[in-house]
Design brief:
Blueprint: H1 2-13, E1 31-36, E2 43-52, E3 60-62, H2 65-75, H3 80-91, H4 112-124, E4 131-132, E5 138-141, E6 145-152, E7 156-159, E8 161-165, E9 167-168, E10 175-176, E11 179-182, E12 184-187, E13 191-194, E14 206-214, E15 228-235, E16 237-239, E17 249-253, E18 256-257, E19 264-265, E20 271-275, E21 291-300, E22 304-313, E23 316-326, E24 328-336, E25 348-354, E26 360-363, E27 366-369, E28 372-375, E29 387-388, E30 394-400, E31 403-411, E32 423-427, E33 440-441, E34 447-450, H5 465-490
Parallel strand pairs: 1-11, 24-33, 24-34, 28-30
Antiparallel strand pairs: 1-5, 2-3, 2-4, 2-6, 6-8, 7-12, 9-10, 13-14, 14-21, 15-20, 15-22, 16-21, 17-18, 17-21, 19-20, 22-23, 24-30, 25-26, 25-29, 25-31, 27-28, 31-32
Helix pairs in contact: 2-4
Amino acid sequence: MKKLKKLFAVMLSLVMVLAMGITSFADTNTATIKLTNFNDADSLKYMQIIEPDQAQPTGWKFSNDVAENAFKAATGLTDAQTILWKMIIKQNPDATKNTELNIPANTTAITNSEIDKALSTIKNNPLAKWTGATDKTSLTVTSAGVYAFDAEKTGYTYKVATAYVGFENYETAPTLRDTEVAAKKSQLIVTKSVADGDKAVAIGQEVEYTITTYVPYIDANNASTRTFKITDKISGAAYVLNEAGKVDGTVMMGNASVAGAEIVPTADGKSFEINLDSLVADTDNPNAGNLITVTYKAKITEVTATNEAKGHKSGAEYAGDNVDLYTGSITLTKVDATNTSKKLSGAEFTVSKVNEDNSLGAALKFDLVNGVYRYNPESTRQNATTVVTDTNGEVKVEGLDVGKYHFTETKAPNGYSINEAGKDIVLGLGEGVTEATANFVATGDLTLKDSQLSALPATGGIGTTIFTIVGCGIMIAAAGLFFASRRKENR
């Protein structure tokens, strides 16, 4: 009985991340899966993908090779039990604290992306053995485990939905537990994300964008308009191209590359279109609902970068998504040390980013744009590393990412001495802010004080003055003696 309790404890901890569970109690050896929002689907089918197996460490196994291979491909793992442990940890992180479960060391939770890829691969596999559902409101099953549901409806995209049927009353005779699953249905939409999570970037930085959508369902009667495309428009950034002049990126359906899909930029480099007509060419819609993932890179060129992706089905545009990225700026003011209202122009600086070990990086390069120094790591401007305060005593640098920056004074204004300490300034999004929603600025004390040069005292010896006086005296005396001697001769 103790072994059985342990087994069922494992089973209960596997309230699968795949399941959307709203449970009720059952006292029979069958369970009812209530189906919500499936009744208006054009078609519905289901398949069990995970089932109990007391001989396995997790107490579970994949029901078929299609499901097992899909999750192996999505996670990059070859051991099915490790994948199931990852699924347990995803739903119940405390499972790792239960030493009786003997979870392998360093096992981490499965990710949402891996789950989506696995389910999309299952949907796309022609070897998957689905069963058509005659009732779109409920399904009666006789085994615990995870059940996958795939639906189709014109104008909508369905993700594969899953339901977990578990056990209860395992202290005595275990019985199956009823559950519920809701249709994961949405109107066709394209989502956009970026790897830089805080959306704060610097000019010259390369960022990776991801577009996700699903292959649309197209009615079999629309034979002449079976088209599917993804478009993207960018500003404030430039696509990173490969050697062939195409955008450096990938187009995937599930875990496989889409044959023939290329990311070709327009002549002006400001947009691209991906033709995916081949995925909807078959009137049986075998690819409908499959996950499409497009990844590509772009380099930030302006202080704000905007990027928008849209989908196009049978010639009609449907809802898209956009991502905006922002840079930050610092405005330093140079003032008189004894009169801070006096602003000092003509002070010259270099600006460096402070490394994590508190050392200074190389001096950054800037281009002067409309009176503002804009960061440009590729600048060819002469003296690009020098920034100078204007008539208001201010110098503004922009296009920077979050971090600590140091201003080193290299030349003081006329009549002032260099402030050897320079100035450290932290550029951030603000306390408690985790994502930039606009161009951000440094705050706090943004002044640097310079002292006036002191008047120098007269120094050195008496110079030639004494010699001049003595010389004049000698000349006067000589002249006196000369005239005196002449008078004696004239007598």
